Protein backbone atom coordinates (compact mmCIF):
# COMPACT_ATOMS: atom_id res chain seq x y z
CA UNK A 1 0.00 0.00 0.00
CA UNK A 2 1.38 3.42 -0.94
CA UNK A 3 1.33 6.31 1.49
CA UNK A 4 -1.43 7.96 -0.50
CA UNK A 5 -3.50 4.78 -0.43
CA UNK A 6 -2.98 4.52 3.33
CA UNK A 7 -3.95 8.18 3.64
CA UNK A 8 -7.24 7.61 1.82
CA UNK A 9 -8.00 4.52 3.88
CA UNK A 10 -7.70 6.53 7.11
CA UNK A 11 -9.46 9.68 5.88
CA UNK A 12 -12.77 10.48 7.62
CA UNK A 13 -14.97 13.45 8.36
CA UNK A 14 -14.45 15.12 11.71
CA UNK A 15 -17.86 13.89 12.82
CA UNK A 16 -16.90 10.30 12.02
CA UNK A 17 -13.51 10.65 13.65
CA UNK A 18 -14.73 11.80 17.08
CA UNK A 19 -16.98 8.75 17.43
CA UNK A 20 -13.94 7.00 18.94
CA UNK A 21 -14.27 9.22 22.03
CA UNK A 22 -16.13 7.50 24.85
CA UNK A 23 -17.53 8.75 28.13
CA UNK A 24 -14.77 8.99 30.73
CA UNK A 25 -12.00 9.37 28.14
CA UNK A 26 -9.06 11.76 28.38
CA UNK A 27 -8.70 13.76 25.17
CA UNK A 28 -5.59 15.76 24.27
CA UNK A 29 -6.04 19.02 22.35
CA UNK A 30 -3.35 21.00 20.59
CA UNK A 31 -1.41 23.96 21.95
CA UNK A 32 -0.63 27.57 21.11
CA UNK A 33 -1.24 28.21 17.39
CA UNK A 34 -1.67 24.50 16.72
CA UNK A 35 -5.36 23.78 17.27
CA UNK A 36 -7.72 21.20 15.78
CA UNK A 37 -10.79 23.32 15.10
CA UNK A 38 -12.86 20.80 13.15
CA UNK A 39 -12.36 18.05 15.71
CA UNK A 40 -13.23 20.37 18.59
CA UNK A 41 -16.46 21.41 16.87
CA UNK A 42 -17.35 17.81 16.06
CA UNK A 43 -16.73 16.67 19.63
CA UNK A 44 -18.88 19.52 20.90
CA UNK A 45 -21.64 18.20 18.67
CA UNK A 46 -21.64 14.96 20.67
CA UNK A 47 -22.07 16.67 24.05
CA UNK A 48 -25.41 15.10 24.87
CA UNK A 49 -24.05 11.62 24.12
CA UNK A 50 -21.04 11.87 26.43
CA UNK A 51 -20.24 12.22 30.12
CA UNK A 52 -17.07 13.06 32.03
CA UNK A 53 -14.83 13.57 28.99
CA UNK A 54 -11.67 15.22 30.30
CA UNK A 55 -9.78 17.49 27.89
CA UNK A 56 -6.24 18.84 28.21
CA UNK A 57 -5.05 21.82 26.18
CA UNK A 58 -2.37 24.48 26.44
CA UNK A 59 -2.51 28.24 25.85
CA UNK A 60 -5.22 27.94 23.25
CA UNK A 61 -6.09 30.76 20.89
CA UNK A 62 -9.18 28.78 19.88
CA UNK A 63 -12.40 29.32 21.84
CA UNK A 64 -13.16 25.66 22.67
CA UNK A 65 -16.58 24.71 21.35
CA UNK A 66 -16.78 21.96 23.96
CA UNK A 67 -17.00 24.72 26.57
CA UNK A 68 -19.36 26.89 24.53
CA UNK A 69 -21.94 24.07 24.30
CA UNK A 70 -21.34 22.87 27.87
CA UNK A 71 -20.54 25.91 30.05
CA UNK A 72 -21.53 24.09 33.24
CA UNK A 73 -19.14 21.21 32.57
CA UNK A 74 -21.79 18.48 32.68
CA UNK A 75 -20.21 16.61 29.76
CA UNK A 76 -16.71 18.02 29.28
CA UNK A 77 -14.01 19.05 31.74
CA UNK A 78 -11.32 21.30 30.25
CA UNK A 79 -7.83 21.85 31.72
CA UNK A 80 -4.82 23.76 30.44
CA UNK A 81 -1.09 23.54 31.12
CA UNK A 82 -0.68 27.29 30.47
CA UNK A 83 -3.50 29.80 30.44
CA UNK A 84 -3.92 32.07 27.43
CA UNK A 85 -5.92 35.27 27.79
CA UNK A 86 -8.96 33.32 26.66
CA UNK A 87 -8.42 30.48 29.14
CA UNK A 88 -7.83 33.01 31.93
CA UNK A 89 -11.38 34.29 31.44
CA UNK A 90 -12.72 30.75 31.32
CA UNK A 91 -10.85 29.93 34.53
CA UNK A 92 -12.54 32.80 36.33
CA UNK A 93 -15.86 31.14 35.51
CA UNK A 94 -14.63 27.68 36.58
CA UNK A 95 -14.88 26.53 32.95
CA UNK A 96 -11.16 25.81 32.66
CA UNK A 97 -8.74 24.42 35.20
CA UNK A 98 -4.99 24.86 35.47
CA UNK A 99 -2.30 22.17 35.42
CA UNK A 100 0.94 23.42 37.07
CA UNK A 101 4.12 22.38 35.27
CA UNK A 102 7.71 23.18 34.47
CA UNK A 103 7.67 23.51 30.69
CA UNK A 104 10.72 21.30 30.09
CA UNK A 105 8.95 18.45 31.91
CA UNK A 106 5.87 18.58 29.67
CA UNK A 107 6.79 15.59 27.43
CA UNK A 108 7.79 13.57 30.50
CA UNK A 109 4.26 13.85 31.83
CA UNK A 110 3.06 11.80 28.86
CA UNK A 111 5.90 9.30 29.00
CA UNK A 112 6.03 8.86 32.76
CA UNK A 113 2.94 10.11 34.59
CA UNK A 114 0.11 9.27 32.20
CA UNK A 115 -1.24 5.78 31.64
CA UNK A 116 0.17 4.71 35.00
CA UNK A 117 -2.98 5.22 37.01
CA UNK A 118 -6.30 6.98 36.68
CA UNK A 119 -4.84 9.78 34.52
CA UNK A 120 -4.94 8.50 30.95
CA UNK A 121 -4.33 9.71 27.41
CA UNK A 122 -6.98 8.01 25.32
CA UNK A 123 -7.42 10.16 22.22
CA UNK A 124 -5.22 12.92 20.81
CA UNK A 125 -6.28 15.64 18.33
CA UNK A 126 -3.21 17.05 16.56
CA UNK A 127 -3.23 19.71 13.81
CA UNK A 128 -0.60 19.00 11.14
CA UNK A 129 0.64 20.19 7.77
CA UNK A 130 -0.03 18.23 4.60
CA UNK A 131 1.68 14.82 4.36
CA UNK A 132 5.02 14.80 2.54
CA UNK A 133 6.23 12.21 0.03
CA UNK A 134 7.78 10.12 2.80
CA UNK A 135 4.52 9.80 4.71
CA UNK A 136 5.28 12.36 7.42
CA UNK A 137 2.97 15.04 8.82
CA UNK A 138 4.79 18.10 10.21
CA UNK A 139 3.45 19.58 13.46
CA UNK A 140 3.93 23.13 12.15
CA UNK A 141 4.94 25.86 14.63
CA UNK A 142 4.37 23.68 17.71
CA UNK A 143 6.55 20.74 18.70
CA UNK A 144 6.88 21.12 22.46
CA UNK A 145 5.17 17.90 23.56
CA UNK A 146 3.29 16.71 20.48
CA UNK A 147 5.43 13.66 19.76
CA UNK A 148 5.16 12.57 23.38
CA UNK A 149 1.37 12.87 23.09
CA UNK A 150 1.44 10.59 20.05
CA UNK A 151 3.49 8.02 21.93
CA UNK A 152 1.12 8.01 24.91
CA UNK A 153 -2.29 8.07 23.21
CA UNK A 154 -4.41 5.02 22.43
CA UNK A 155 -5.84 6.73 19.33
CA UNK A 156 -4.11 9.41 17.24
CA UNK A 157 -6.25 11.70 15.06
CA UNK A 158 -4.55 14.32 12.89
CA UNK A 159 -6.33 17.33 11.44
CA UNK A 160 -4.55 18.18 8.18
CA UNK A 161 -4.36 21.88 7.45
CA UNK A 162 -2.86 22.86 4.09
CA UNK A 163 -2.24 26.36 5.49
CA UNK A 164 0.01 25.01 8.25
CA UNK A 165 3.66 26.03 7.77
CA UNK A 166 6.23 23.25 7.63
CA UNK A 167 8.73 23.90 10.41
CA UNK A 168 12.00 22.04 10.08
CA UNK A 169 13.61 20.81 13.23
CA UNK A 170 16.20 18.74 14.95
CA UNK A 171 13.83 15.92 15.87
CA UNK A 172 10.30 15.32 17.13
CA UNK A 173 8.70 17.74 14.66
CA UNK A 174 6.53 15.24 12.79
CA UNK A 175 4.51 12.03 12.96
CA UNK A 176 4.49 9.22 10.38
CA UNK A 177 1.27 8.02 8.84
CA UNK A 178 1.91 4.54 10.25
CA UNK A 179 1.44 6.03 13.75
CA UNK A 180 -1.80 7.80 12.79
CA UNK A 181 -5.17 6.12 13.22
CA UNK A 182 -7.55 8.66 11.68
CA UNK A 183 -7.07 11.60 9.29
CA UNK A 184 -9.35 14.63 9.06
CA UNK A 185 -8.94 17.55 6.66
CA UNK A 186 -9.68 21.17 7.52
CA UNK A 187 -7.90 23.98 5.69
CA UNK A 188 -7.96 27.28 7.58
CA UNK A 189 -5.53 30.13 8.36
CA UNK A 190 -3.62 29.86 11.61
CA UNK A 191 -4.69 32.12 14.43
CA UNK A 192 -2.57 35.25 14.51
CA UNK A 193 -1.31 36.90 17.68
CA UNK A 194 -0.21 40.49 16.99
CA UNK A 195 2.90 41.67 18.86
CA UNK A 196 2.07 43.29 22.21
CA UNK A 197 2.48 47.04 22.30
CA UNK A 198 5.12 48.64 24.49
CA UNK A 199 5.40 52.08 26.06
CA UNK A 200 8.06 54.49 27.28
CA UNK A 201 8.61 52.65 30.56
CA UNK A 202 9.13 49.38 28.68
CA UNK A 203 11.75 51.15 26.56
CA UNK A 204 13.57 52.42 29.66
CA UNK A 205 13.69 48.93 31.15
CA UNK A 206 14.85 47.56 27.80
CA UNK A 207 17.71 50.06 27.73
CA UNK A 208 19.10 48.65 30.99
CA UNK A 209 18.72 45.10 29.66
CA UNK A 210 20.49 46.06 26.44
CA UNK A 211 23.47 47.12 28.53
CA UNK A 212 23.96 43.48 29.53
CA UNK A 213 24.04 42.14 25.96
CA UNK A 214 27.18 41.69 23.89
CA UNK A 215 28.34 40.34 20.54
CA UNK A 216 27.88 36.59 20.22
CA UNK A 217 25.39 36.27 23.06
CA UNK A 218 22.62 33.66 22.71
CA UNK A 219 19.21 35.14 23.53
CA UNK A 220 15.98 33.83 25.02
CA UNK A 221 13.08 36.27 25.16
CA UNK A 222 9.77 35.91 26.96
CA UNK A 223 6.39 37.22 25.86
CA UNK A 224 4.84 40.67 26.12
CA UNK A 225 5.45 44.33 25.43
CA UNK A 226 8.77 44.55 27.25
CA UNK A 227 10.41 41.62 25.39
CA UNK A 228 9.12 43.16 22.16
CA UNK A 229 10.78 46.45 23.08
CA UNK A 230 14.04 44.58 23.68
CA UNK A 231 13.68 42.76 20.37
CA UNK A 232 13.18 46.06 18.52
CA UNK A 233 16.22 47.59 20.21
CA UNK A 234 18.32 44.57 19.28
CA UNK A 235 17.22 44.92 15.65
CA UNK A 236 18.26 48.57 15.67
CA UNK A 237 21.54 48.03 17.55
CA UNK A 238 25.06 47.38 16.30
CA UNK A 239 25.32 44.01 18.09
CA UNK A 240 26.84 41.23 16.00
CA UNK A 241 26.32 37.49 15.58
CA UNK A 242 23.70 37.00 18.27
CA UNK A 243 22.05 33.61 18.57
CA UNK A 244 18.50 32.50 19.39
CA UNK A 245 17.66 29.53 21.62
CA UNK A 246 14.19 30.15 22.99
CA UNK A 247 10.97 28.39 23.83
CA UNK A 248 8.96 30.86 21.77
CA UNK A 249 9.63 32.33 18.32
CA UNK A 250 7.94 35.67 17.68
CA UNK A 251 7.63 38.49 15.15
CA UNK A 252 10.31 40.45 17.00
CA UNK A 253 12.73 37.58 16.34
CA UNK A 254 11.94 37.74 12.64
CA UNK A 255 13.09 41.36 12.77
CA UNK A 256 16.19 40.40 14.74
CA UNK A 257 17.19 37.89 12.06
CA UNK A 258 16.33 40.04 9.04
CA UNK A 259 18.23 42.99 10.52
CA UNK A 260 21.39 40.88 10.49
CA UNK A 261 21.84 41.14 14.28
CA UNK A 262 21.11 37.42 14.69
CA UNK A 263 23.20 34.93 12.73
CA UNK A 264 23.88 32.16 15.22
CA UNK A 265 27.45 31.90 13.94
CA UNK A 266 29.02 31.95 17.39
CA UNK A 267 26.72 29.40 19.02
CA UNK A 268 28.70 26.46 20.35
CA UNK A 269 25.57 24.27 20.13
CA UNK A 270 23.30 24.27 17.05
CA UNK A 271 25.48 26.89 15.33
CA UNK A 272 23.70 28.85 12.62
CA UNK A 273 20.28 27.62 13.79
CA UNK A 274 17.55 29.70 15.41
CA UNK A 275 16.16 27.19 17.92
CA UNK A 276 12.65 27.24 19.42
CA UNK A 277 9.86 24.87 20.50
CA UNK A 278 6.74 26.81 19.43
CA UNK A 279 5.84 30.00 17.62
CA UNK A 280 3.03 32.50 18.12
CA UNK A 281 2.73 35.57 15.97
CA UNK A 282 1.34 36.92 12.75
CA UNK A 283 1.22 35.34 9.31
CA UNK A 284 4.52 37.10 8.64
CA UNK A 285 6.12 35.07 11.42
CA UNK A 286 4.62 31.78 10.21
CA UNK A 287 5.64 32.49 6.62
CA UNK A 288 9.19 33.21 7.79
CA UNK A 289 9.37 29.83 9.55
CA UNK A 290 7.84 27.85 6.68
CA UNK A 291 10.56 25.53 5.28
CA UNK A 292 13.25 27.87 6.63
CA UNK A 293 16.39 25.79 7.07
CA UNK A 294 18.00 28.39 9.32
CA UNK A 295 15.32 27.73 11.96
CA UNK A 296 15.05 24.53 13.98
CA UNK A 297 12.08 23.48 16.10
CA UNK A 298 12.71 20.95 18.87
CA UNK A 299 10.66 19.31 21.63
CA UNK A 300 10.57 21.38 24.80
CA UNK A 301 12.51 18.81 26.82
CA UNK A 302 15.46 19.84 24.64
CA UNK A 303 14.97 23.61 24.22
CA UNK A 304 14.11 24.20 27.87
CA UNK A 305 16.27 21.59 29.54
CA UNK A 306 18.31 23.64 32.05
CA UNK A 307 21.33 21.43 31.38
CA UNK A 308 21.11 22.00 27.61
CA UNK A 309 20.68 25.74 28.17
CA UNK A 310 23.57 25.71 30.62
CA UNK A 311 25.84 24.10 28.04
CA UNK A 312 25.33 27.00 25.60
CA UNK A 313 28.01 29.65 26.16
CA UNK A 314 27.03 33.29 26.76
CA UNK A 315 23.36 32.50 27.23
CA UNK A 316 21.20 35.50 28.19
CA UNK A 317 17.67 34.66 29.38
CA UNK A 318 15.29 37.62 29.51
CA UNK A 319 11.92 37.17 31.20
CA UNK A 320 9.39 39.34 32.99
CA UNK A 321 7.21 39.05 36.07
CA UNK A 322 4.14 40.65 37.62
CA UNK A 323 5.74 41.51 40.95
CA UNK A 324 8.71 40.73 43.18
CA UNK A 325 9.14 40.75 46.94
CA UNK A 326 12.16 42.08 48.84
CA UNK A 327 13.59 38.59 49.14
CA UNK A 328 13.82 38.33 45.34
CA UNK A 329 10.92 35.95 44.74
CA UNK A 330 9.07 36.52 41.47
CA UNK A 331 5.37 36.04 40.86
CA UNK A 332 4.86 35.80 37.12
CA UNK A 333 1.73 33.76 36.53
CA UNK A 334 -1.05 34.63 38.97
CA UNK A 335 -2.60 37.46 40.95
CA UNK A 336 -3.61 35.93 44.25
CA UNK A 337 -5.79 32.95 43.40
CA UNK A 338 -6.46 34.25 39.88
CA UNK A 339 -4.41 32.23 37.40
CA UNK A 340 -3.20 34.52 34.62
CA UNK A 341 -0.78 32.46 32.56
CA UNK A 342 1.60 29.74 33.76
CA UNK A 343 5.13 28.95 34.86
CA UNK A 344 6.09 28.27 31.25
CA UNK A 345 9.83 28.10 30.76
CA UNK A 346 10.78 30.92 33.12
CA UNK A 347 12.26 28.68 35.81
CA UNK A 348 13.91 26.49 33.14
CA UNK A 349 15.80 29.40 31.61
CA UNK A 350 16.54 31.18 34.89
CA UNK A 351 18.32 28.07 36.11
CA UNK A 352 19.95 27.19 32.79
CA UNK A 353 21.26 30.66 31.93
CA UNK A 354 23.12 30.96 35.22
CA UNK A 355 24.83 27.63 34.51
CA UNK A 356 26.02 28.96 31.13
CA UNK A 357 29.65 30.04 30.75
CA UNK A 358 29.35 33.82 30.43
CA UNK A 359 25.57 33.62 30.85
CA UNK A 360 23.08 35.47 32.99
CA UNK A 361 19.35 35.47 33.68
CA UNK A 362 17.50 38.78 33.71
CA UNK A 363 14.05 39.41 35.20
CA UNK A 364 12.49 42.60 33.86
CA UNK A 365 9.50 44.52 35.21
CA UNK A 366 8.15 48.04 35.42
CA UNK A 367 8.43 49.51 38.91
CA UNK A 368 4.71 50.25 39.24
CA UNK A 369 1.32 49.13 37.98
CA UNK A 370 -1.85 51.16 37.64
CA UNK A 371 -4.88 49.36 39.05
CA UNK A 372 -8.39 49.44 37.63
CA UNK A 373 -9.47 51.97 40.25
CA UNK A 374 -6.70 54.35 39.16
CA UNK A 375 -4.39 53.78 42.13
CA UNK A 376 -0.71 53.10 41.48
CA UNK A 377 1.06 50.29 43.29
CA UNK A 378 4.67 49.25 43.47
CA UNK A 379 5.51 45.99 41.71
CA UNK A 380 8.35 45.55 44.20
CA UNK A 381 6.58 44.50 47.38
CA UNK A 382 7.82 43.88 50.94
CA UNK A 383 6.02 40.53 50.90
CA UNK A 384 3.40 38.96 48.65
CA UNK A 385 -0.28 38.91 49.44
CA UNK A 386 -1.67 35.62 50.79
CA UNK A 387 -2.16 32.88 48.18
CA UNK A 388 0.29 34.49 45.74
CA UNK A 389 1.97 31.89 43.54
CA UNK A 390 5.77 32.07 43.44
CA UNK A 391 7.05 31.27 39.94
CA UNK A 392 10.79 31.78 40.46
CA UNK A 393 12.23 31.29 43.96
CA UNK A 394 14.65 33.77 45.48
CA UNK A 395 17.50 31.26 45.32
CA UNK A 396 17.23 31.24 41.53
CA UNK A 397 17.05 35.00 40.99
CA UNK A 398 19.95 36.62 39.15
CA UNK A 399 19.60 40.10 37.56
CA UNK A 400 16.51 42.27 38.06
CA UNK A 401 15.77 45.31 35.89
CA UNK A 402 13.24 48.14 36.16
CA UNK A 403 13.19 51.56 34.52
CA UNK A 404 15.38 52.75 37.43
CA UNK A 405 18.27 50.37 36.94
CA UNK A 406 19.48 46.79 37.03
CA UNK A 407 20.88 44.84 40.00
CA UNK A 408 22.39 41.40 40.56
CA UNK A 409 20.95 39.41 43.49
CA UNK A 410 23.19 36.34 43.27
CA UNK A 411 25.36 35.74 46.37
CA UNK A 412 23.63 38.65 48.15
CA UNK A 413 22.26 38.37 51.68
CA UNK A 414 18.68 39.30 52.51
CA UNK A 415 19.64 42.85 53.53
CA UNK A 416 21.75 43.30 50.40
CA UNK A 417 18.85 42.10 48.27
CA UNK A 418 16.45 44.47 49.99
CA UNK A 419 18.81 47.38 49.44
CA UNK A 420 19.36 46.50 45.80
CA UNK A 421 15.68 46.03 44.99
CA UNK A 422 14.63 49.21 46.78
CA UNK A 423 17.24 51.11 44.77
CA UNK A 424 15.39 50.21 41.54
CA UNK A 425 11.87 50.62 42.97
CA UNK A 426 9.86 53.70 42.11
CA UNK A 427 11.11 56.62 44.25
CA UNK A 428 7.59 57.26 45.59
CA UNK A 429 7.61 53.86 47.31
CA UNK A 430 11.19 53.54 48.51
CA UNK A 431 10.71 54.99 52.01
CA UNK A 432 7.71 52.76 52.63
CA UNK A 433 9.70 49.72 51.44
CA UNK A 434 12.57 50.65 53.78
CA UNK A 435 10.19 50.84 56.74
CA UNK A 436 8.76 47.43 55.91
CA UNK A 437 12.24 45.97 55.42
CA UNK A 438 13.17 47.21 58.91
CA UNK A 439 10.13 45.41 60.37
CA UNK A 440 11.22 42.27 58.51
CA UNK A 441 14.77 42.55 59.92
CA UNK A 442 16.32 42.75 56.47
CA UNK A 443 17.43 46.37 56.65
CA UNK A 444 20.69 47.46 58.28
CA UNK A 445 21.31 50.95 59.65
CA UNK A 446 24.30 51.18 57.32
CA UNK A 447 22.16 50.50 54.25
CA UNK A 448 21.91 53.21 51.63
CA UNK A 449 18.75 55.27 51.44
UniProtKB/TrEMBL annotation:
Gene3D superfamilies recorded: 4-hydroxybutyrate coenzyme like domains (3.30.750.70), Acetyl-CoA hydrolase/transferase C-terminal domain (3.40.1080.20), Glutaconate Coenzyme A-transferase (3.40.1080.10)
Domain Acetyl-CoA hydrolase/transferase N-terminal: 3-187
Domain of life: Bacteria
The organism's taxonomic lineage, starting at the top: Bacteria, Bacillati, Bacillota, Clostridia, Eubacteriales
Organism for this UniProt entry: Peptococcus niger
Protein name, entry field: Probable butyrate:acetyl-CoA coenzyme A-transferase
Pathway connected to this protein: Lipid metabolism; butanoate metabolism
Function (record text): Coenzyme A-transferase that converts butyrate to butyryl-CoA.
Main subcellular localisation: cytoplasm
Amino acid sequence: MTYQEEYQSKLKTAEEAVKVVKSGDWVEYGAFAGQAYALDAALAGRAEELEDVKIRGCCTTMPPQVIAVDPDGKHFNYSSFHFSGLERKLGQKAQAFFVPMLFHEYPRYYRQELNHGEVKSNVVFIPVAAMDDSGYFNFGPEASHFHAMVEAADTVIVEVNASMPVCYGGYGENVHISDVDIIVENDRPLDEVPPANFGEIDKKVAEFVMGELFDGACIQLGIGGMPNAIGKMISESDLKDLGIHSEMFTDSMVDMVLSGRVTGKRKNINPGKHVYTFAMGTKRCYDFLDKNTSCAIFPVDYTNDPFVVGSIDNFIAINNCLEMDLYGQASSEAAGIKQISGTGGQADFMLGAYRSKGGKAIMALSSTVKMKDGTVKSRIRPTFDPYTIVTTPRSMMNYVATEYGIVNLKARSTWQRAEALISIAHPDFREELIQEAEKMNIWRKSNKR
